[in-house]
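Need Myosin motor domain-containing protein's 3D structure for a figure. Predict it.
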Amino acid sequence: MLALSTHRIQAGKDNVAKRLTLQQAIDTRDSLAKFIYTSLFDWLVEEINKSLEMGKRLTGRSISILDIYGFESFKKNSFEQFCINYANERLQQHFNRHLFKLEQEEYELDGIDWTKVDFEDNQECLDLFEKKPIGLISLLDEESNFPRATDLTLVNKLKQHLNAHSFFKGERSGAFSVRHYAGEVIYETSSFLEKNRDLLHSDTIQLLSSCSGRMPQLFASRMLNQFQKISNPLSQFSVIDSQKQSVGTKFKGQLFKLMQQLENTTPHFIRCIKPNSERLPGVYEKNIVLEQLRCCGVLEVVRISRSGYPTRMTHQEFARRYGFLLSENNAFQDPLSTSVAVLQQFDVLPEMYQVGYTKLYFRAGQIGALEDTRKQVLQGTLEVQKCFRGHQARRYFHELKRGVITLQSFVRGENTRKELRHQVAQKMVDEKLWAIVQLQSVIRGWLARRHFLHLQNTKKLKSDTVNFLGKTGRKISEVKDLTLQQVHILPLGVEELQRRVMQAEATLSQKEEENAALREQLNHFEARWSEYEAKMKAMEEMSQRQIASLQMSLTAAKKSLAADNTAGQPGRPDGSPSPCYYDSEDNMSMETQTPGGSTPIKFVNNGSDFGGGRGTNGINAVSHLVKEFEEHRQNFDNEAKAIVEVKPAQSASINPDEELRKLKHSFETWKKEYKIRLRETKAKLYKLGHSEEEKYRRSWWGKKSRKA
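Structure prediction for Myosin motor domain-containing protein:
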């Protein structure tokens, strides 16, 4: 609020805060918004250029497109229209320069017979804007520097210095008019000075510098870097206030940079014509369109194009492009003579072209015939070259083919000769091998027969020795020594025995290794089996304790029912009901531990006395439960023993842990079902054994019990 409503002024070494009026505060706000928008626009352009890697090395192959507002003339024209129309005047001058001035100057410099085409030049209007020191922009800047200047003083100064100019006219009520190339425009000077100043006080820059955002700080720092830095910050801000350029001067400088860039390029112009003043589709007003064509100079462009020479080529370029169309006698002349000879050969009329000092100038459509002839000659030349190249390629191919065939014939002959020599040598080798095999077969047969005869002699010797021992009674050791002496005589038998001994030793070592591995595996299985036996023993002991508890409960229930039956009828001998004592819950309970945890299991029964048929029914029900209990106990014992007695060899295929888990689950399921049936039996016994007046309860052990 302080930055937009006050303005600090440095008076000597002191700073004085001045309150701004409402309009001044609004102008300060607008200036801040414009500065932020301009800075953001410049930053975006810079970042986009960086991302596209636009640099000096790429500008030579770039295409620039300039799209601007057209000429503007409204009911109320202010400073914005003033700047836009000034830019259009400068671009119109660029248009006139390239299409009129440079075109006609080139004709005159090259010695072409040419009649000048008159066109409307707007140079005087540009001088009205740009001339120093009495131009519109200079006078506007001069008036903007006066603190007490107003819009009225600006108009008076403009009338005083520019009233004699033919393109300027002072109007009433603080306005002035300028005669542009497209028409006369009346500008109202209201807010001209404020918009031209575009004040951006030091307080506003300091406000942006104190922002927490990165972008405002960046904009403020760039603004400070544009001016010379002074040690005192306050004096630095005062420099900003005093040295800031006006909007008109800045716009003029940017426009000059743009025109300089356009002068370094080859321009192409696109004129946009407004078909009607109502901005309606499909409506074409001839008068408005014709007026725009006249203002833009399009009619003069058409007149120059019709009377001028749009196609132009230098003598060297024309001779190099069309000189080969002549005969060989004219091939070594200079470029100008060659060009004239080409034109005469193709009967080009003299009024359709002109010869300049450096170039040839042609009317529209005259160069087309030369281009067609050149294209036909080049096409025929290409056809001849194609046929000649094809002939050369075919001849070279045939020569190469003959050489390849000759080379292949020599190679194939050499390969055949080598193969034949190899077959003859192989045949000789096969014959030698067959002879060697025959000789080896004869030798092996002779050795086999000799070995067989030796074995027969040995066997016969053994039988004779046994018979001799039986008759003479010699010792076996002597026979063994004799046999060993005979074996030593046979070297072939000894070698066979040594080979067998070595094989037996290798087999023995292998079997010992296998036995060691099997022994380790057996130890591992025995350790696992001992663990399983310990677990099974613990399970068996726990299940036996539970079964014993259940059996005690059933025995107690059975004894209670038997006692009630021996007591006789439900009443005493004197006819009064026999007293029965029960616990508060009317049940008997027994808590046991399950094999896998500490979940209590309750077995309930009714302890009331019965009379007659009621007692018999209770005994039958309890007897049935006892019988079922014994059967299931025996089944669980058998299954547990079967798991414990399983052999280690079978445990490899049967998992004892899994079997134990299944047995435990089956036991738990049966225990829950049995518990429910005990409760149901208790309820039945309770209904049968108690009359309506008996409300006392007793436990089986003769004491009160409150366990549920």
